[in-house]
Amino acid sequence: MYDFAPFFREIRLMSVNRTDIENIARLARLSLREEEVAGYVETLGNILGMVGQLDRADTRGIEPMAHPLAGLAQRLRADEVTETDRHALYQQNAPRVESGLYIVPKVIE
Amino acid sequence: MSSPLHARGLAALAAGLAKREFSSVELTRHLLGRLEAAQPQLNAMISITGEAALAAAARADGAIAGGKAGPLTGLPIVHKDIFCTEGVRTSCGSRMLDNFVSPYDATVVAKLKAAGTVMLGKTNMDEFAMGSSNETSWYGPVKNPWNTAMVPGGSSGGSAAAVAARLAPAATATDTGGSIRQPAALSGVTGLKPTYGRVSRYGMIAFASSLDQAGVIAASAEDCALLLGAMAGFDPRDSTSVDAPVPDYVAGLAAPTKGLRVGIVKEFFDQGLDAQNEQQLRATFEVFRKLGATLVDVSLPNVGLSVPTYYVVAPAECSSNLARFDGVRFGHRCENPQDLLDLYRRSRGEGFGAEVKRRIMTGTYVLSAGYYDAYYLKAQQVRQLISADFARVFERVDVLAGPTSPTPAFALGAKTADPVTMYLNDIYTIGANLAGVPALSVPCGFVNDLPVGLQLIGPHFSEAKLLAAAHAFQRETDWHTRTPGAWQ
Fold it and tell me: Most buried pick, A91, B54, B280, B309, via CB within 10 A?
């Protein structure tokens, strides 16, 4: 079987606490159950520790990679209407719609 | 005596349809029966679309009778449930989209439909393509047809298992960090991830947009070539689609292997690769040598940093892409939201599974204020180094050869507790995604009665060369024709 031990030896511990997880979950708009938080404290800490291996790469003066195909620029198209109005079809997938509008809880009292 | 229909590949089935040996309706009915029968044991499918398939097959038979058939007319295939299919549920393996009926077809689906293929259904997958074992699916894990106690690999586990068990001759699939090649290796089938931008991503539910690419899984390189030709090409609806002519991949299969320079990547053999697996691979390299190829030892010095690089870039892009699932316009919505924030948080908390939430949070963390330079910027710089390693080595060799996966299929549940151990399944495959280059996996032997794969990686837009090399190998060997005993 494959020996993963050398890989793990290079991993330094990275600590993430409950408050960190709760903050990240709030930023990411995710509700977490109490028991999920403890699990993510451990697994996110492990992942960030593994990611810490990047520190050993010498990246001085290296341009961050912007696109997998070098030299390819983002294409632009002519500013023309290409889509027809299909909102009734699209709204068939919406959880709540009234008079063609998406309904959410009141935001302004 | 001729072989049963399900044992034949796309090319052989196309010949049979052309000779009127059987009809597309007969073929479709036969495979639908196998798909239904296999579902309790393998769980390879999320949806089986029998009625629509038979209607499409009848239309294909009409086209064949009318002399209007193309090379793919009437051939049944299955689509990974990440591709939007008009009027058919497109779940992406998630509770979030369990109720989502796509209002349009992905470009890949539309092209294959226009080519006359018959969709039999949608394959099971890791939720939002995040996984290497197909255990994160909301619809339950897929089982490996070679041994149902084992995983089929992931995230395209349903596509790989369906082809391995000969429930469908070919499947579409996607690959962000190895999701075509790794399940192909673990399930004993052939899978190709094309160059980034070669196949349209329009209508393919996004995970990590700078890495995602659509491709194929089939029983042979020849069948992959046949299907890829119909899928590839420029699409104005995908802003990163590449406007370059699509070569005739089938005609390209005849290219000679003589003189092919095959690079053996030193780093892929450095750390603890299973001895039996290595032995199989060394035997495979000898086949290439016999075919006239030259073996060259090469090095990709930064490829060892692929996994940490990927686990910054992919979660960062995922956290951004999956922000669209907000419980407002489509997808899961929680019951009785107190306010808008509660609606967002509970809809997402309930709709996403544990691994998807983990990646969204990892991405949110690495992109958050104060951490961006240390993580995301650093990872994009290392990605540049890895990509440069590939560019440098392709000045000396035509293709790279090595393992697809560090181990054969592992037991269900064996790696679910520790995400980092799961992530390491993709140590050999992620490099190609980071560099945007094409790569494929072909079956090259067995270890402990489970298939293992040979990975071939080529420079940008070298799909034809990779397929020709794989085809030459498959003419010399019969690993790709082996099928699991229960599914013959």
Answer: B309
